[in-house]
Amino acid sequence: MKTAEDIKFLHFNFIDTRVHGSTLDLYPLYLTVKGEFAHGIIPVLKEVHSFYLLTDHGFTDTRRLKERYTHGRGSIWETMLPFVEVIGG
């Protein structure tokens, strides 16, 4: 990044990729994603003064070994689209 003003849109897809490829239980999966976010994404976001952070819809735990986490069910986790506005100083 040259300057924060150069940023129009950042797309991080690592969470979706990690979830769909995982066979971990939910809490260990959460810890893995949290660690990657803290070490890989937070340093990038510190360079951007204000931004919107939003996520893809959720997933369903099928409890199967293959394709454990998937999309396609009608739960609230599948239909919500969370977002937050972050305003830096």
Walk me through what this model shows.
By secondary structure, this protein is an alpha+beta fold. The protein has one domain (11-87). The protein is built from three helices and four strands. The protein has helices at 14-20, 26-45, 76-79, and strands at 50-54, 60-61, 69-70, 83-87. A two-stranded antiparallel sheet has the order 1-4. Strands 2-3 form a two-stranded antiparallel ribbon. Strand 2 and strand 3 form a beta hairpin. The two termini are 19 Å apart. The model has no long low-confidence stretch (mean pLDDT 82).
Fold blueprint:
Blueprint: H1 14-20, H2 26-45, E1 50-54, E2 60-61, E3 69-70, H3 76-79, E4 83-87
Antiparallel strand pairs: 1-4, 2-3
What is the count of helical runs?
3
What fraction of the residues are assigned to beta strands by DSSP? 15-25%
Provide the gyration radius in Å: 15 Å
Main sheet characteristics: 2 strands, antiparallel
Alpha-beta content class:
alpha+beta
Mean pLDDT: 82
Please indicate the count of domains. Answer: 1
Encode the helix/strand succession as letters. HHEEEHE
Extract low-pLDDT stretches: none
Query: What distance lies between the first and last C-alpha atoms, to the nearest angstrom?
Result: 19 Å
Helical percentage: 25-40%
Number of strands: 4
**How does the overall form come out from the CA principal axes?**
globular
Neighbour order of strands in the largest sheet: 1-4
The gist of it:
This protein is α+β, with helices and mostly antiparallel strands. The protein is built from three helices and four strands, in the order ααβββαβ. It has one domain (11-87).
